[in-house]
Amino acid sequence: MRVVVLVKATKESEAGVIPDKKLLTDMGKFNEELVRNGIMLAGEGLRASSIGKRVKFGSGAPVVIDGPFAETKELVAGFWIWKVKSMDEALQWIKRAPFSREEVEIRQIFEAEDFGKELAPEVRAYEERLREQMASRK
């Protein structure tokens, strides 16, 4: 199964404070261990919401909202995408992360088979072609 690990924003990350050398080094070692064990598929840190945009869709034209956004606890400062056997395995890995005060959310990613017969064969084939195209561009 694949999961996305969402690292919640902090006041520091929203202020644009770059992590210190020790945390960056420790995080690099942790990421290297994840890759070596076939867990990490992707991962990135995100810049502060002050330079971000939100787009709300409704009955009319989409509405663009400029950052910064309120409620730091609801913002994301970074993410990983992991391939794990179970949510328990993801929890065991995240407990080893070199965080001190961060909060992390782990969510399972939908796979095509999760949609069952609702995902028509032609849509499934189209999705597979798109994934192949993305993989070939890496």
Give the helix level as a range of percent. Answer: 25-40%
Arithmetic mean of pLDDT: 92
Strand order of the largest sheet: 2-5-1-6
CATH architecture classification name: 2-Layer Sandwich
Proportion of β residues?
15-25%
Query: According to CATH, what is the class?
Result: Alpha Beta
Q: Give the number of helices.
A: 4
CATH fold node name: Alpha-Beta Plaits
Residue windows where pLDDT falls under 50 for at least 5 positions: none
Walkthrough of the structure:
There is one protein chain. The chain has 138 residues and is an alpha+beta fold. It has one domain: Dimeric alpha+beta barrel (Alpha-Beta Plaits, 2-Layer Sandwich), CATH 3.30.70.1060. The chain is built from four helices and six strands. The chain has helices at 11-14, 21-36, 87-94, 121-136, and strands spanning 2-8, 40-45, 53-56, 63-66, 76-83, 104-108. The strands form two sheets. Strands 2-5-1-6 form a four-stranded antiparallel β-sheet. A hairpin with a 6-residue loop joins strand 3 (53-56) and strand 4 (63-66). The longest helix is centred in the N-terminal third of the chain and has 16 residues, at 21-36. The chain is globular and about 50 Å long. It starts with a strand and ends with a helix.
